[in-house]
Write a structure and sequence with these properties.
The chain has 456 residues and is mainly α. It is built from 15 helices and no strands.
Length: 456
């Protein structure tokens, strides 16, 4: 038998690795973020759905009417009918229905204002998240894992500090802020009560956001998806249970919806801390690295503050716009809020592709490949703009049933009539919004946060 001398065999050179197409890399990063964003949207839509139904005016009127009929007090009476003295209480059901309808619309208006302030909170977390993603991505792309770990630790420290500061400032000025937004009467009171638990537990939400941003910068968008999946899975049943009083939980009504959201973010923040404490994607929390490092905190804030000013200035403009809407009454405020919840299908898509652009631009610039950085930004825009434009078509065609889902009672028809034209008009803005969101994120990934501020 012929033997082969191993030393005589020439090694066959390995074929060079074929880089994945840019669009696949973008989708690999964007899709998990998109799923995460849609989970958040699912929670928001569930909250809006619950607000429109947990105290349905018609159901309450019918329930009272059945009770009075059983007592022989109602009969065939209709509103305004002259009734004998023995049925003097027969007008009660319709008066209750009117009051419940007004209260329901006030809940919807309050939730709209609360939603705007929730965006303000999200923009506040930008003071941590943008710098965290950009800096960790830059260090990761340069192969400096130790610096990336140090940046992640300082980002968590910054998140905790900013979260506590936001709680103190928010609770102290909440009532003044709601009044400044021209939301008065029961709707204003409902909004204040709704926002208090969210502000009281704000630090956990900021830590959750900062930790996920660090993992994204390290190229890990899946862990954030898993955490936010858990947050959503806890939030949905908890909000319903606290609102309606299911099982041993007390019925807290409208405030229960917000408390369910706040508690779910507590679990999300604690989960992120636990994940980073054990180590994930090359990042790990160390007690010695959680002591403030002025230089690294300045570097984080140097990227985040302009981005925060960018986002916060936009939200301040939106809050001013909201004050105009609130002057039009609770019906307009409720309709406006429902339109925005549906519009989130589009702008959350833009945010996901913007996150992919920011991560890839940062990593490629850190690796010294500006050509790939530019290609990644343009590819992310092409894909994101296509998705958002498709959403715009959906808004225009299906506006009426999308509103009717949240307004099941005939007495809420004015909210539908006011809101459908709004959603149809918003549909035409989707391509421009995609351009603004995705290219702004791409510039931030490259460390340029000043130009986006000028545009905003």
């Amino acid at each position: 038998m012929k033997t082969i001398n191993p030393t005589a065999v020439q090694a066959v050179p390995a074929a060079p690795a074929v880089p994945r197409p840019t669009w696949r890399v973008v989708l690999a990063l964007a899709l998990p973020v998109l799923a995460q964003q849609f989970l958040i949207l699912t929670v928001n839509l569930s909250d809006r759905f619950l607000t429109g139904r947990f105290a349905s005016p018609t159901e309450r009127v019918e329930a009272v009417g059945h009770r009075l009929t059983a007592l022989g007090l109602l009969g065939a009476a209709t509103p305004g009918t002259a009734l004998p003295a023995r049925v003097v209480g027969a007008e009660i059901p319709w008066e209750m229905g009117r009051q419940e309808t007004e209260r329901q619309v006030s809940y919807q208006a309050a939730q709209t204002t609360a939603g705007y302030l929730a965006w303000f909170i999200s923009s506040y977390t930008v003071l941590v998240s943008v710098g965290s993603t950009a800096l960790v991505a830059r260090f990761t792309g340069a192969g400096d894992r130790a610096a990336a770990v140090y940046a992640a630790n300082q980002a968590i420290l910054l998140a905790a500090g900013l979260g506590l500061a936001g709680t103190v400032a928010g609770l102290a000025g909440l009532e003044v802020l709601i009044a400044a937004l021209q939301l008065h009467g029961p709707a204003g009171e409902f909004a204040v009560a709704y926002l208090r638990p969210l502000l009281a537990l704000l630090a956990f939400q900021v830590i959750e956001s900062g930790g996920i941003a660090c993992l994204v910068g390290a190229g890990d968008t899946r862990t954030g998806l898993y955490v936010m999946t858990g947050v959503a899975l806890v939030n949905l049943p908890l909000a319903w249970a606290l609102c309606l009083g299911l099982g041993p939980l007390p019925p807290l009504g409208f405030v229960g919806i917000a408390l369910g959201t706040a508690l779910s973010h507590v679990l999300g923040g604690l989960t992120i801390l636990a994940i980073l404490a054990r180590g994930r994607s090359g990042l790990r929390l160390h007690a010695r690295l959680l002591w403030p490092n002025a230089d690294l905190l300045r570097r984080l804030l140097r990227v985040s503050v302009p981005a925060g000013i960018d986002s916060l200035s936009l939200v301040i403009g939106q809050l001013w716009f909201l004050s105009i809407v609130n002057r039009l009454g609770d019906v307009a405020g409720g309709a406006h809020g429902i339109a925005l919840q549906w519009e989130a299908l589009a702008y959350l898509s833009g945010s996901a592709f913007g996150t992919a652009a920011m991560t890839l631009v940062g990593q490629n610039l850190g690796a010294g490949r500006p050509d790939r950085a530019a290609r990644s930004g343009w590819t992310a825009f092409a894909l994101g703009c296509g998705v958002m434009s498709f959403m715009g078509v959906v808004f225009y065609v299906l506006a009426y049933p999308m509103f009717a889902l949240f307004c099941p009672d005939p007495a809420q028809r004015p909210v539908i009539d006011a809101g459908v034209p709004v959603l149809q008009l918003v549909a035409f803005a989707m391509p421009a919004l995609a351009c603004s969101m995705i290219f702004t994120s791409a510039l931030r990934g490259g460390g340029d946060t000043r130009v986006p501020v000028l545009f905003t």
